[in-house]
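Hi C.,

You asked whether I'd gotten around to modeling the 305-residue construct. I have! Everything is below, sequence then structure, no commentary in between.
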Amino acid sequence: MSKKIILLAGPTASGKSKLAIYLAEKLNGEIINADSMQIYKEFSILSSRPTEFETKKIKHHIYGTISVKKHFSAGDWLKEAKKKIDICLKKKKIPIIVGGTGLYFNTITKGISKIPKIDFKTRSKVRELYRKFGFKKFYKMLLELDPKVKNKLLPTDSQRAQRAFEVKLKTKKSLYEWISKTKSEFSDFNIKKIFIDIPREDLLQKISERTDFMINQNCISEVIKFNKLKINKNLSANKLIGVQEISRYLRGTITLKECRDLINIKTRQYAKRQNTWARGHMKNWDRLYSKNFSILLKKTLKVTS
C-alpha cells in the first residue's frame, strides 16, 4: 500500500483550516502548513493562523516558525515539509498539507528544479528593476533576456516574472529549462488533491467577516511591532495583505473604515489570483464545495478515503 498524503488548497478565507482539522480528527492525521504568510512568527492574527486551541486539538507543523527578517523560498518550504511528512508517516499519521500558496503545492506534485541559489545582490537588483519600470516594461525586458518565457507566464504575475529574470541573469539558463528537468519526489505516494471551489458570493462574505474579525482581534498591534523591525523592503513579509493598509492608517493618511475596505479589496484580488492559478495548475484536482459544512466534510472524506 502506497503512503498517503492529502493536499487541501483553496482561495484565502475559503475555510481550509477548519476542514483540515475535522479531516485530521476523522483520518488520524496531522496538519502541515502550505501558506507562505502563516509561516511567520510575528503575524498570527493578520495571517489568520490557526488558534492555540486548534493547534492543541491537532498537531500543526510549520506555523509561526520563521522570522519576517528571513527569506523563505518554495525550496526552503519543501525541505521543511519533507521532514514533517516523514515525522507524520513514522507516527502512522496521514500528512494533511493545507494552504493557499500554489508554488508550495507544485513542489509536491511536480517537484522543484535544482536551480542554484540566487544571491541577495542579484535578487535585490531584479526587485529594483521591477519597481523602477513597472510590470509591462519589466515583462518586455524579461522577454528580451529570456524568450522562452513567452506564453508561459502572465506579465501581471510579478513573483514569477521576477523569479524568471533572476534565474536567467544568474545561471544563463531559462527558468523553463530548469523546470523541464524537474521530477516530483512523491511520485510513489498516493496523493489526494482537493481544491475548495467556493462560489464568489460566499467567498466575498467570508473575506469581509474575516477582515472585521482580524481588526477586532487587534491585528493593528502586530503591524506596529512589525514596522519597528524595519526589515528589508524586498522581503516577502512586506507583501502580507494588511501591512501596507494598516501602516497608512497609523500614519493618519486613511481612516479605519478606508483601511478595512482596502484590505477587503486586496484580499478579493488575491483570491481571484489564487483561483486563476488553480485553473491553470490544478486541473486534475477534485473541486469540492458545499455551504453546509457537514456535507463538505462528507464529500472530502469520500474523496480522501
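If it helps when you're writing up: Residues 30 and 58 are 6 Å apart (CA to CA).

Thanks,
B.
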